[in-house]
Design a protein that fits this description.
By secondary structure, the chain is α+β, with helices and mostly antiparallel strands. The chain has helices spanning about 25-45, 75-85, 90-100, 105-130, 160-170, 175-180, and strands spanning about 5-15, 60, 65-70, 140, 145-150, 155-160, 185-190, 200-205, 230-245, 250-255, 255-260, 275-285, 300-310. It has 2 domains: about 5-210, no CATH class; about 230-310, Nucleic acid-binding proteins (OB fold (Dihydrolipoamide Acetyltransferase, E2P)), CATH 2.40.50. It contains 6 helices and 13 strands. The chain is globular, with a radius of gyration of 20 Å.
Length: about 325
Amino acid sequence: MRNYSGYLGYIKIEGAGVKEGVISAKSAAVALSGFNDSLKYFIKKSDGDFSLIDFEIPVRIQEGSWQALVPHTISQWVEDGVALGIANYGRAAMGELGKNDFKNKNTAEIVRRAITKMKSVAKIGKHVGGAEASQLKGTKVKGNDVEIPNDEGIYLRVTREELETYLKTPSAMLSDLVSAIEKDQSLSIAVVDNNGKSSEEKITYDDRLSFVYENQSKEHDLILPELVHGETVIIEGVISKGNKNTNTIGIEYKGHVLTCMPMKGSIVKYKDCLYEKCQIEGTVSRVSDPMITDAPRPKIRFTRLTLTDRPEDNQIGLL
């Protein structure tokens, strides 16, 4: 077994089409973006200060698999980022480190804990097929251990903390990451211990449906027809992603992630809303051409975005 000393975790794509570590450019971009977004989410849940730090994940190419690895320290992220020619990275991140006084924090353990949470969500989501809390009937609690049944009556034993993490995580959090998996391929999420030993959770092509929440709609089907082009709406959901380059955020709503753009200003001022349950008010836009009102996927041009509550404040019932 390969030793991963110097790393905290990684994702790995294996299978058909992966030759000498080469995968399609589209899959690579989707995998890195999905891993980046998910990792930042779980880091924030482990330690909110780290939500202010931006970072890039270096890629290692080797025969038979494609990997994106998380180095052991943030300083290593900076060094690797400069070595890889990553733009606009390095000094800004280290500046944030100084401002927020990270010297007394165990960075490695915070990030390792975040990757462990991601791996747990993958393990449980795979087992229950993406079922939500209300659908986990028959769950047995034995002290700190929980046994979760799936549709086939097979039980998975996890800790209470793992199940709570799964129930509090937005259901579409891993959807972008797993969408990088192509036919006859698998994607593994791995955490690496202090001895360099990795523990992987493998997601196959067939497992993807447990994490992709787009209701498998065909491109010509009208998604969320109640959201009519030009109408003002108020909806609630979890803000699952943000993109400063496009000045957009994504809100999870009825099994879909809707793209939302502020009517004015930057999304940066809404950074505290990222990964939280919010209420958004705005105008529905189905296409850039206002003459066409029946495009399949709606967007929201919003004027107001407010926090409603925080998932971590809610009590999770396990019985």
